[in-house]
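Encode chain A's predicted structure.
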Amino acid sequence: MSELKRRVQGNQAMPAFDVEPEELVVFEVDNEYLFSQYFEQTDLFEDLSGYYNDTEYRFEIPADEFDAVRERLENAYYDPVIVTDLEPYCVVIDKYDEHAEILKQSVATWERQRKRFFLMKDDLAVKEAIGRGAEHISDTDFVVGL
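Encoded structure for chain A:
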């Protein structure tokens, strides 16, 4: 049994009260689940730290381990929403345009044909990126391709 499963199963039930879970967009890509999230709950980050890629600033969970991670997230009042269609979350800018603020809200980035592409972490991040001059990928001749 994995350490995470032991921790999830060992958690005592919390008292019942109405708390709206925070939606967390999780992208299913090539048999992995990817998301970017800052957790204020130190214990939650510690439980998931084995999945954190500190080079890409995102969590990367193998498909066969995602159920335990989902349960841990739900216990911490997150609502993981699995997304398989990446296009609504992709924006494009010219390769040399300012992109630091867009990058901070992305889950993945790649370059192609003097353009920089970003997979944004949620709908709000997409809107903010467009407000910073990015184009939605559907408004270009490009298609998603990680």
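The first helix runs from residue 3 to 10.
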